[in-house]
Structure prediction request, 85 residues.
Amino acid sequence: MKNTILNNQDERVEVMALFGYEMTPCQPLTFKRPGGVETEITELLRTHIRFAGKATLHIFDVLAGRERLRLEFNSIDLSWHLTQR
Prediction:
């Protein structure tokens, strides 16, 4: 069953990430939705940074199988969110 994000909302997720790897300071490897199954990230497509007030959002466009997703890491509260692309 495919999980989708509805109504342009974001969803807080748990992420397993590798920090300090070669030229990529952070690379998400897997994520898990609340009460859900762990999903493997098969490819990191793009990373960029956006400033939102005092927070820095580290944004990762990824592939999980054939599904294109976006993960955002908030530098203030150290939370990860799965967002609508």
Notes: The chain has a mean pLDDT of 87. Residues 18 and 27 are 5 Å apart (CA to CA).
